[in-house]
Each structure stands twice: as C-alpha cells, then as structure tokens.
Specification:
The protein has strands at about 5, 10-15, 20-25, 30-40, 45-50, 60, 70-75, 80-85, 90-100, 115, 120-125. By secondary structure, the protein is mainly β.
Length: about 130
C-alpha cells in the first residue's frame, strides 16, 4: 500500500498562491491515479482535483477550475497542487489520495474510490 505525506500548507492572504506537495512511498507511484480533496470544519470532504497515470488526464471541481493546477512528477514520486487566486472559501484541510486508474472517470470525484490517504495539510486563506 502506498503511503502519502502532504506538505506546503499555510496561511496566505486572499489572492495569494500556495503549492501543495504530496510525496508517495514505493516504486509504483506511476501506476496510481492521484487526487486532492479538502475538508472544511463542519463540512464533508470534497473533491478538488485528480490526475490519472500514463495519460495524465486531469479533472477539477468547478469551484477551483482555472485557479488550481494538479501535476505529477513520477521520477520524484510526487503530486502537486498549485493554487492561485486563493479565496477565503478555499480554507480547509487538504488531503492527498491514491488509487489505481478507475474504469469510469466519474469515480475519480468520489472519496470512496481512493484507498490510500495522507494525513492532510491545513490551508488558511485570510480575507
């Protein structure tokens, strides 16, 4: 089972940027679809972005489309989430997740699809 460790969270003013990283253990990172989710206090965990394996197809929640970019470096076993034009409503704990490529792309949006999770990193955007 792959192990995931997120980093890069912090406090930023609205309009600012952060880049989250998720480092994965093991030699099979390239075989995993990687996802980012977030959870704000009192709310359910929600999908943010995902990137598949060989094709590197990317998927985004409507709320972050055009502001966030997911990417991966298979040589470094790392997936990134570049977050620009941050808003106070982006404040949440951000989680990295991993699973094998799905049969249907629609399943990428569901937290239940992913079998491995990191511990999360806090992102706070002040107004």
């Amino acid at each position: 089972q792959v192990q995931l460790v997120e980093s890069g969270g912090g406090l930023v003013q609205a309009g600012g940027s952060l880049r989250l990283s998720c480092a994965a253990s093991g030699r099979t990172f390239s075989r995993y679809t990687m996802g980012w989710f977030r959870q704000a206090p009192g709310r359910e965990r929600e999908f943010v972005a995902a990137i598949t394996t060989s094709a590197g197809n990317t998927y985004y929640a409507d709320s972050v489309k055009g502001r966030f970019t997911i990417s991966r470096d298979n040589a470094k076993n790392t997936v990134y989430l570049q977050m620009n034009s941050l808003k106070p409503e982006d404040t949440a704990v951000y989680y990295c997740a991993a699973e094998g490529d799905p049969k249907y792309s629609a399943t990428l949006y569901s937290a239940g699809f992913y079998g491995a999770w990191g511990q999360g990193t806090q992102v706070t955007v002040s107004s």
